[in-house]
Amino acid sequence: MDALTLLLLSVMTAATPLLLAALGELITEKSGVLNLGVEGMMIVGAVCAFAVSVSTGNAAAGIAAGAVAGAAMALIFGFLTLTMLANQVATGLALTIFGIGLSALIGKGYVGIAVAPLAKLHIPLLSDIPLLGPILFGQDALVYLSLLSVLAVYWFMKRTRAGLVLRAVGDSHEAAHAIGYSVIRIRYLAVLFGGAMAGLAGAYLSLAYTPLWAENMTAGRGWIALALVVFSTWRPGRLLAGAYLFGGITILQLHAQSAGWGVPSQIMSMLPYLATILVLVIISGDRAKIRLNAPACLGKVFHPAQ
């Protein structure tokens, strides 16, 4: 029972940064913007969160700094693509490269420093229930935030007028503009939200998952988050399932190495990325479903003068 509880807890911690980053990218893409810079925003959020947490001794300040740093990176992307009309794919790739270099520069003085991981929210009696207690009532704040964010994004997309407007902008920006909505402003807000969520994902990595700073510690999770959005066909519920599926694959390769299965560690480390490629290949076979759920204006440039 203890081993099963530990395994499930490990899956939740591995899935949380993927879920946070993918939810932000889902909102961004629903507005019609394709931001491939998730990895760069995550890594900058991770280093800024760690640096502020070490400097202030306050984990909450570090989490806030991570979200702000991710949003600042997203603002750069938004200015280049929405105001200057730069190519979204090229700008997103450049943002990732820039973020990796910037994070290495900022984190140079923090290598080798460790901090206490985020505190778990222990609820008396409930946290002591076998198996379910530690899983449901013994997590840190960002795990609960990621789960609540799934519900919030679903409610926003399906039950609010603002969510309807966001989807309208992503499906037909010209029509939304014609009836009086500010397409650029709405897309800026969506891009900033996506950046803040990516920054929170990075903060979770450096303050909870592995509470230290190391260069390239995101290790491709930003790209997996991008794939999860397509895997989920832009639906929050499927995104939750996908994040925990990939979290489980990540933990599987770690447990397989520790159990001495005799499989080369390099092959086991490849599992999450091989699974990502496999899922994308399978999904690409059902192009009708992708066309049905994908925002029609995804990646397309819009200018109010048009």
TrEMBL record:
Domain of life: Bacteria
InterPro entries the UniProt entry points to: ABC_transp_permease (IPR001851)
Any one GO cellular component localisation term in the record: plasma membrane
Transmembrane regions listed in the UniProt entry: 6-26, 33-53, 59-80, 92-116, 136-157, 188-207, 213-232, 239-256, 262-283
UniProt keyword terms in alphabetical order: Cell membrane, Membrane, Transmembrane, Transmembrane helix
Protein name, UniProt field: ABC transporter permease
One Pfam family hit: BPD_transp_2
Record GO terms (molecular function): transmembrane transporter activity
Principal subcellular localisation of the protein: membrane
PANTHER family (UniProt xref): ABC TRANSPORTER PERMEASE PROTEIN, SUGAR ABC TRANSPORTER INTEGRAL MEMBRANE PROTEIN-RELATED
Membrane topology: Multi-pass membrane protein
Keyword Lyase listed: no
Localization annotation: Cell membrane
